[in-house]
Write a structure and sequence with these properties.
Low-confidence stretches: none
Mean pLDDT: 83
Radius of gyration: 22 Å
Helix content: over 70%
Structural class: mainly alpha
Distance between the termini: 20 Å
Largest sheet: none
Length: about 100
């Protein structure tokens, strides 16, 4: 089944999220290496805000995954309803 535009956008968002996480991890490591101990509290606060951003992005990603799952379930239900009984049995045998 070919990917439509919505699926491609979903996959691009996953790639962007991975990039954001890697950039934040690198920034956190750099902050810990370069910050004096006195300023560690500020760095911890910034990391907390960054983690909130990651949580927000993850929640959006989970929303996209849920929407894709619902759409796939709807398609599978439609396909199963439209298939003749013989074809439906073959499909179920292949899934097992």
């Amino acid at each position: 089944m070919p990917l439509d535009e919505r699926d491609r956008q979903f996959l691009q968002r996953i790639d962007r999220l991975r990039l954001y996480v890697l950039i934040m991890a690198g920034a956190i490591l750099l902050v810990f290496l370069l910050m004096p101990k006195e300023e560690l509290q500020l760095a911890t606060s910034i990391i907390g805000i960054a983690l909130c951003g990651i949580f927000w992005l993850t929640q959006r990603l989970m929303g996209y995954i849920s929407a894709l799952d619902l759409e796939l379930l709807r398609i599978m239900d439609t396909v199963q309803r439209l298939l003749p009984e013989e074809e439906r049995r073959k499909l179920l045998e292949k899934r097992s």
